[in-house]
Write a structure and sequence with these properties.
Helix content: over 70%
Largest sheet: none
Number of domains: 1
Structural class: mainly alpha
Number of strands: 0
């Protein structure tokens, strides 16, 4: 999965770079497809790949997590 994400990211960035450097009549399409691919395909895949095995509740500010943070701060002070 990470290789697929890497290949798609390189392809999107290459498309954007070629759009800026080449002087052909479809340069705006190269840039547009590169940006669209980056933001509609690569970033969601990257986010899913990094968050798939994590518990979202661990990152939310719930009462229990706030109490844990306060306890950790108290332990560090002593």
């Amino acid at each position: 999965m990470k290789y697929l994400i890497l290949i798609l990211a390189i392809a999107a960035i290459t498309s954007i770079a070629l759009g800026f450097t080449l002087d052909v009549h479809y340069t705006q399409k190269l840039i547009g497809f590169g940006v669209a691919g980056l933001f509609l395909i690569v970033i969601p895949l990257f986010t899913y790949h990094n968050w798939k095995d994590k518990n979202v509740q661990d990152y939310m500010l719930t009462k229990e997590n706030l109490d844990k943070m306060r306890d950790n701060q108290r332990k560090k002070k002593h």
